[in-house]
Amino acid sequence: xxxxxxxxxxxxxAGDSLRLSxxxxxxxxxxxxxxxxxxxxxxxxxxxxxxxxxxxxxxxxDSVKGxxxxxxxxxxxxxxxxxDSLKPEDTDVYYCAxxxxxxxxxxPQTAPWYSYWGQGTQVTVVS
Length: 127
Description:
Blueprint (H helix, E strand, L loop, with lengths): L2 E5 L2 E4 L4 E8 L7 E7 L6 E6 L6 E3 L7 E6 L4 E6 L8 E8 L16 E2 L3 E6 L1
Parallel strand pairs: 2-11
Antiparallel strand pairs: 1-3, 3-8, 4-5, 4-9, 5-6, 7-8, 9-10, 9-11
């Protein structure tokens, strides 16, 4: 059983940066597609960014392209989401997700495809 542990959330001013981390226990991210999603109360979980098991492919939601960067560190078995130029509309609970079977070339952007989830970390951006 894979357990994902997120960290790095917080409250920042608009324009600031945050880096979220996701460390899977019970597995390695290098054998999984990893994704970051976010969700506001009463809304569906929204894809933010994803990275392939090899680290060679990434995908981003249009709303974060050019501002957010997903990356992985094999040595630390950790996936990061670097968030720059944060906006108030980025305020949400951010979740890390993974799946390690049936990995397609195109990184899926739908929440039900992913098998494992973290507990979520709150990101609040104030203007």
